[in-house]
Structure formats: structure tokens, C-alpha cells
Structure to design on (609 residues):
């Protein structure tokens, strides 16, 4: 069962720390959209995982490999098709699904490649976003969504409720779900999503394919 | 422009023939009793493999790095070339404190089978006739070259190489090693290469071979017997090939339309343009150091390379069960071995959930980028080797 107490203050991102707590030691991990490799490094150091990464940005990939991480330049929309079924214990998609072209296909691939899929995403249902849109009449910009609409890579933003619908659509089971408020505190997501959908700036879902897996 | 000492025709030819049979480097001989079975089903014996080493092999023989050279490369990866007197061809990458640190690693660079720098090839004397093999040399493949390297590694008493690394045709050898001898490769770095030679690349090679064979001094391959050298043919082959190693941007930046002497057109077929003069220089210096028949044989070996076809048209099958750690590297402006061909290798490795890193280096220097000073490339190789070294338990 997931521990929901908050860890002491750390230089690491709150969602990364949560993922690092959930991952079993010595497992095989694929981090899709691994960025500069911060999570992979954390998982290697704290959980001795056999980690791999996929990252779209060439500069970030090269930085990862220079740091000694096993990362390839690739696109979640295209390159996940190549991986065999259940090749990893965890397939992680960290704050990336909203920037994919085909979120459903990407999620299905994650559930196929990993025994579990761990997906984090910015919650577009957060109250500040709702009020920004309501009172300014413009696309919201926040710490997690910093770019103006025309610069943003995020073509498929969603709320926690929307994501839960996609989870149901791909017939996955939620093993755990946690939202983070704007101070990085953990808000466990239980049956009702409404409160977390209002106060969570981002969320982490741990999923497993319902049939088999 | 390069100012290599101008040697007389006979001197350079004599030195070249001498290096083909008695190299300045180390060499290991395998006698008639240990023939190599080639892909063409012929037995080749005796065999010599010339090689250079750098650094020290550690006590448990776990720090050896094998460097596979290119089409016209040689074993002098980090030492002066005995003929051209130029520094080693990869001294930017290999040496004390360099990304391939010879203070840490034991680096082995063999001359490939079929080449002309001391390993058995068409310029070697066939002991049965006392004459150079020339066209009696069997057509060898990348697999044959690797099998010959396996003999050398056995001879050195090394079970598993810490890393096998090479660019272009060297990368093909790396892939062949990783496929056929995966348990002997702890890590592998195929650079600017492909799992099969593209029709465009075969086409360029055919132009080169035809240029050599059209030269009357080629003498149907028996130029040694006639005391001739197919200079013009081989130089043209090199000039055409050299263009493919560069890029349009590189040619543009380096030469533009600049004229050679003064700034006037001569209204002749002299080398008016700097780019012409550069290519002619590349062609003529190449002829001094390389055997024409070797050029035919090695280009053929590259053309025949098709790891995918050898594995039932499924490239992933070439790597099934591999435990080797891979770093695949491509360069943005390389149109001879474009990034998409490296990506195919990565895709196949992903399909077997292999441990693979893949970087594409941004540069406008074309295929030859891997031989040039590319800091980002060096940094990734260094980072990869350091991480693999930690996993392998090598001291830093």
C-alpha cells in the first residue's frame, strides 16, 4: 500500500519522490519523456533499477548519455511500438502524456510494455486554472504550464477526471493515485475525484492492465 | 593544404608492399593448420593479423577495448602512420586522458582481413605461389573480418571485451560482433553505420571499383607483377568516395566557389577551384598508402553486409538475448549512413529490450564527423564508457 505521508524537503520534484517510493528495488524501468534524466538517476541511486529512457529533445538525450544513463532519442507516439510486451516492470510517463499526439495509444503501449504503468500529468482542473480562464478569458499559464498557448507543446491537456475516463476506456485498473497541491503536498485520490481535481496541480496514477498482466 | 613529403613512385610502392607483408605494428600469424572458414566456404590459411595495442591489460583482463577501423583505415589508431607519418586517425578520441582513456583501458586495434597494412589481404604474398594473392584472394565478408578478429582476441587471452567500438564499416564490425559473439562484448558502440549497406552506398562503391578496373595499369588485378600501380583509377575512386564522406554544407563552408591560384578562371581543365585541388590531393595521397585490390575487396565486403537478411529479414533476431550495453551514434549531416539507419538498429535493439542509448550529434561535417573534433560526441562516448565501467566494476 502506498505511503501517503510527505517526505522531508528535498531538491527532487515531489512526483519524482513519490515514484521513487513506489518502484521496487532492482526492477526494470522505462522512463518515457525522461528529460534530463533526473528521475532515472534518482531511481538508479535509491532503488538500483535497470533504467532506460526515451526523450524527444536531442540535447537532453545527449546530456543523459553523458551522465551515464541509457537513453535514446525517440518519440512516445512512434517509438513505443517497437518494445516487446511486458519488457519492463514499470513504464513511466512523467508529465508527458499531454504533449503526445495520441494519448490513448501511448497509454495502451505503456500498459503493454510495463507490468505497471506510472503516469503523471498536470491537472487542468486545478482551481487556479479554472479561475484564470473564467476571469481573464484567456488560456491559463501556470508554473506547470508556463508557455502561452501558441508556444506550448501540450496539445492534449486534461483534468484528473478526464484522465480517469481514459483509464476506464483502455480498461486499466488504478493501483494508486495521488494528486499534489501547489505546495507539493500529497492528496490521495480515492473514490470521489472532485476535491483532488480542484486542488491538485498535478497527479500520479499507477495503472495495470485489467485482463492479465 | 597538406604538405606530405613527395615520394617517388617506386619508393611509396615499395614501402606499401613491405607494410602489407611485414607491418611496423605487432602481428600474429595463424599457420596452415588453423585455417579460417570464410563465408564463401573457402578455407583461408595461413593468416596474419596485424594490430596495435595501447595501455595495459588489467589482471582480470576486463578492461580491453577493441577498435574496428573503417574501409581505408588501419591499426594506427593512436600512433604515427608508418607511411604518411601523420598522427593516428583517432587520436582525438584515443589516448591518455582522452574519452577512450589508455591510462584506464587496454585498447586493441587490428588491421582488418582483406586490407593492406599487414593483415592477410590481396596484397599479401600467397605462400603457395610466392606472388601477391591479387584476385586469387577470396571475397571476404564483414563476418569473416570479425572471425579473424576473434582469433586475435583469443590469442590475447581475452574472454570478454569491455567495449567494441567503431565507425562506418567499423560500426558494421561492431554490429557483427554484438550479433555473433554477444557474450564477448560487454558493451558496443556502433557509430555512423547501418545494419545493411544501402543501394546508394553500393552504387557509389561500384563507381569506385569501376574506376579502378578501368585503369589499364590495373592489369586485371596483377599490377604488382607488371610493376605498375593503377594510380588514376584508384585516385578517382577515392575522390568520388571522399565527396560522400563530407556534406554539401561542409564543402560550401570550406571551399565555396573559391579559386585555386589568383582569382581568375584559366579556361582549361586545370584545378581552377579549390575544391577540385583538394579532391585531387585526397586522391593522389590515398594511392600512396593504399592497395587498389584491397579497395575492391573491402568495398565488396561492405556491400554484402546485411545483418537483417542474415536473420530472416528481422533485424531484431540478430540481437535476441543480448546482454551487451549499446551506444548507437549518428550525425545529422551524414547522408551516407543517415540517422534513420541508426534508428533502425535502435528499433531492433528495443524490440529485444536491449540496453541501448542512442544519440544524434548535430554537425554539418557529414559522415566524417566521427573522425573530427566533435566535443558532444566525445562527451557521450566518455559518459557511456564511464557508466559501463562502473557497472563492469572497473576502477575509475
Amino acid at each position: 500500500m502506498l505511503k501517503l505521508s510527505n517526505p522531508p524537503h528535498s531538491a527532487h520534484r515531489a512526483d519524482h519522490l513519490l515514484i521513487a517510493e513506489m518502484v521496487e528495488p532492482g526492477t526494470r524501468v522505462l522512463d518515457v519523456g525522461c528529460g534530463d534524466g533526473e528521475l532515472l538517476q534518482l531511481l538508479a541511486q535509491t532503488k538500483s533499477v535497470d533504467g532506460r529512457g526515451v526523450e524527444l529533445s536531442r540535447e537532453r538525450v545527449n546530456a543523459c548519455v553523458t551522465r551515464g544513463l541509457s537513453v535514446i532519442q525517440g518519440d512516445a507516439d512512434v517509438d513505443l511500438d517497437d518494445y516487446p510486451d511486458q519488457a519492463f516492470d514499470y513504464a513511466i510517463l512523467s508529465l508527458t502524456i499531454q504533449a503526445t499526439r495520441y494519448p490513448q495509444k501511448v497509454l495502451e503501449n505503456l500498459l503493454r510494455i510495463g507490468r505497471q504503468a506510472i503516469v503523471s500529468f498536470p491537472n487542468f482542473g486545478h482551481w487556479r486554472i479554472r479561475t484564470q480562464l473564467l476571469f481573464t478569458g484567456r488560456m491559463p499559464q501556470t508554473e506547470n504550464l508556463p508557455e502561452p498557448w501558441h508556444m506550448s507543446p501540450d496539445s492534449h491537456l486534461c483534468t484528473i477526471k478526464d484522465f480517469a475516463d481514459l483509464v476506464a476506456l483502455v480498461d486499466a485498473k488504478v493501483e494508486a493515485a495521488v494528486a499534489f497541491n501547489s505546495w507539493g503536498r500529497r492528496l490521495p485520490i480515492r473514490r470521489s475525484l472532485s476535491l483532488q481535481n480542484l486542488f491538485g496541480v498535478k497527479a500520479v496514477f499507477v495503472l495495470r492492465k485489467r485482463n492479465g498482466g | 593544404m597538406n604538405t606530405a613529403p613527395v615520394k617517388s613512385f617506386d619508393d611509396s610502392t615499395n614501402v606499401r608492399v613491405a607494410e602489407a607483408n611485414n607491418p611496423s605494428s605487432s602481428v600474429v600469424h595463424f599457420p596452415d593448420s588453423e585455417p579460417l572458414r570464410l563465408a564463401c566456404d573457402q578455407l583461408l590459411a595461413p593468416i596474419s593479423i596485424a594490430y596495435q595495442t595501447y595501455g595495459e591489460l588489467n589482471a582480470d583482463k576486463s578492461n580491453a577495448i577493441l577498435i574496428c577501423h573503417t574501409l581505408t583505415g588501419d591499426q594506427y589508431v593512436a600512433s604515427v602512420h608508418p607511411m604518411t607519418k601523420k598522427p593516428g586517425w583517432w587520436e582525438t578520441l584515443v589516448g591518455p586522458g582522452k574519452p577512450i582513456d589508455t591510462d584506464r583501458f587496454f585498447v586493441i586495434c587490428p588491421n582488418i582481413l582483406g586490407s593492406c597494412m599487414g593483415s592477410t589481404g590481396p596484397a599479401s604474398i600467397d605462400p603457395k605461389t610466392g606472388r601477391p594473392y591479387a584476385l586469387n584472394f577470396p571475397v571476404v565478408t564483414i563476418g569473416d573480418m570479425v572471425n579473424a578478429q576473434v582469433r586475435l582476441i583469443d590469442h590475447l587471452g581475452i574472454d570478454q571485451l569491455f567495449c567494441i567500438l567503431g565507425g562506418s564499416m567499423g560500426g558494421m564490425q561492431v554490429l557483427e560482433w554484438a550479433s555473433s559473439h554477444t557474450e564477448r562484448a560487454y558493451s558496443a558502440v556502433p557509430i555512423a553505420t547501418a545494419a545493411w549497406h544501402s543501394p546508394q552506398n553500393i552504387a557509389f562503391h561500384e563507381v569506385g571499383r569501376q574506376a579502378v578496373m578501368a585503369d589499364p595499369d590495373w592489369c586485371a588485378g596483377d599490377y604488382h607483377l607488371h610493376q605498375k600501380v593503377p594510380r588514376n583509377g584508384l585516385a578517382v575512386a577515392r575522390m568520388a568516395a571522399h565527396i560522400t564522406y563530407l556534406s554539401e554544407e561542409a564543402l560550401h563552408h570550406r571551399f565555396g566557389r573559391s579559386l585555386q591560384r589568383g582569382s581568375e578562371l584559366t579556361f582549361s581543365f586545370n584545378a581552377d577551384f579549390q575544391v577540385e585541388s583538394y579532391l585531387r590531393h585526397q586522391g593522389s595521397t590515398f594511392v600512396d598508402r593504399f592497395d587498389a585490390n584491397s579497395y575492391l575487396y573491402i568495398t565488396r565486403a561492405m556491400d554484402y553486409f546485411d545483418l537483417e537478411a542474415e536473420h530472416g529479414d528481422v533485424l531484431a533476431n540478430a540481437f535476441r538475448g543480448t546482454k551487451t550495453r549499446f551506444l548507437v551514434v549518428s550525425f545529422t549531416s551524414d547522408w551516407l549512413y543517415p540517422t534513420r539507419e541508426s534508428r533502425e538498429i535502435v528499433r531492433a535493439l528495443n524490440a529485444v529490450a536491449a540496453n541501448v542509448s542512442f544519440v544524434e550529434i548535430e554537425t554539418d561535417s557529414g559522415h566524417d564527423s566521427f573522425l573530427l573534433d566533435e566535443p558532444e560526441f566525445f562527451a557521450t562516448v566518455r559518459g557511456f564508457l564511464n557508466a559501463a565501467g562502473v557497472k563492469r566494476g572497473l576502477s575509475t
Residues 1-9 of chain B have pLDDT under 50 and may be disordered. DSSP finds ten helices and 14 strands in chain B. The longest strand of chain B covers residues 47-54.
